[in-house]
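Q: How would the structure tokens look for this protein?
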Amino acid sequence: MLRIWLQSKGAAGTPAAPCGGSPGAPIAASRRNLGALSAQPAKGGRMTSVWESLTVDARDPSRLAHWWAEALGYEVVADKPDEVEIRPAPDQLPGIVFVPVTDPKQTKNRLHLDLRPADQEAEVERLVDMGARHVDVGQGDVDWTVLADPEGNEFCVLRQRG
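A: Here is the predicted structure in token form.
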């Protein structure tokens, strides 16, 4: 299961806790250092949100987080038993947070990542060599390749633009 956490600010300008959970110490500490990425009031004073992270349920969060960090060229910024977070850089959002679950993945993802490499065929080969596998989710004859990570979460590898 994938969940997106949004950081939002109310009228007093204080961050709200992420949807579906409470902020953990490593994430809370990093939020203090990322003030420039905080939500800003929109026209008319309405509350806005900043994409904080995407949360992935995993049977082995550390293993899956390290796999995705290698796949994306991200860094592991927190590795605790109850959550592992990866980011493009320690001070850059959004992150991907992996949390433990005991239930196996049952159905097709309702949310997935699309990757656009410079060379689709080479990237698909690299990801498969790392442990991804080809899957059929009913995509038919398309320009992208559907793969699944080591825990079965589907993602797409798109053709290069142009």
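The radius of gyration is 17 Å.

Confidence is low (pLDDT under 50) at residues 2-36.

Upvote if useful.
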